[in-house]
Amino acid sequence: MNIYDISKKAGVSIATVSRVLNGNSYVSEKTKEKVLKVIEECSYTPNAFARGLGLNTMSTVGIMCADSSDPYIARAIYFIEQELRQNNYDALLCCTGFDLEVKEKYMNLLLSKRTDAIILVGSNFVEADNEKNQYIREAAKKVPIMIVNGALDGENIYCTLCDDYHAVFEATKTLKNSGCKNILYLYNSKSYSGKKKLSGFKSAMNLDKSVSEENYEYIKFFNGNIKEIKDYLTSLRNNGLEFDGIVTADDNLAIGALKYAKENNIKVPNELSIIGFNNSIVAECSEPELTSIDNKLEAVCYNCISTLMNIFDGMHAPLKTVFSAEIIYRGTTRPNS
Fold first, then answer.
1. 3-26, pLDDT tens digit by residue?
2. What is the CATH number of the domain that holds 268?
3. Structural domains counted in the chain
4. CA 14 to CA 31: how far, in whole Å?
5. One domain for residues 311 and 245
6. Whether pLDDT at 47 is above 50
7. Nearest residue to 224 (alpha-carbon basis) of 169, 277, 199, 187
8. What residues make up the domain containing 12?
9. 336 belongs to a structural domain
10. Which among 80, 201, 281, 300 is least buried, having the fewest CB atoms inside 10 angstroms?
11. What CATH number does the domain containing 13 carry?
12. Alpha-carbon 140 to chain mean position
């Protein structure tokens, strides 16, 4: 039993419970009596370690990510931690990797630390096999669970994400409208987000949903570093695959494509157009600068924390918030015909 449980049972906000426990005079006698009655019924004892406030809260939020060295994840953590600090909350970060058992282990660890909520950063936490998501739903019975860039239905689970499907759909249509005939889709993740992006490409190319990299030569899954991406694209070309446009699921993939073009004396964008994803700092560091999909990461992260603060205050909060992406046009794409 914690302050969050008390607030739910009494039908008031966490802030109101805090005021009652602190003897704040801005709480009506009726509300105060209702909260104190719930506290008595539940034999609630405030945590002595909670910053001396007499509250059963550590003012701490857990953050889980698979790999903090990933530029996208690192930026997301920065925005989230910054916004939490602005709201007087500390953060505990756990880098879980991709193994389900390890994810469950760290979820339980953060719950044992009496965190007030847990934020899952990245769509890899949402498994295709719904049974594998049960540990998230179980955790949501204890604290609010926030998912950044992924979606999972469940009580007390709140998701904030970009519309990856339409983002890649529009990027692919952009290359088609600019005259590209053979468009390659290069991706490196089969997460929830990765599947949405792939689906957007298929729709733009009028492909059946069942089409995959195994049965369509212009869809390629490859997970490697920038040099390996360059070499991989070179091998595709040497094996007879011709392409004049590339849409990628990540800016690093697109940078690898740029290096491929330079090594093979292919002019960008006249002979090869390239669109990346994430609008990361590398998009402006490349030559030519990279056209990339801005997935509104900063807005997504700030909305996640804003939603969480509303939950803590007992206010209404949407279970899912979806942001529209924007293509930032730079030097790797031609004007549309």
1. 777 888 888 887 787 777 766 656
2. 3.40.50.2300
3. 3
4. 13
5. no
6. no
7. 187
8. 1-57
9. no
10. 281
11. 1.10.260.40
12. 18
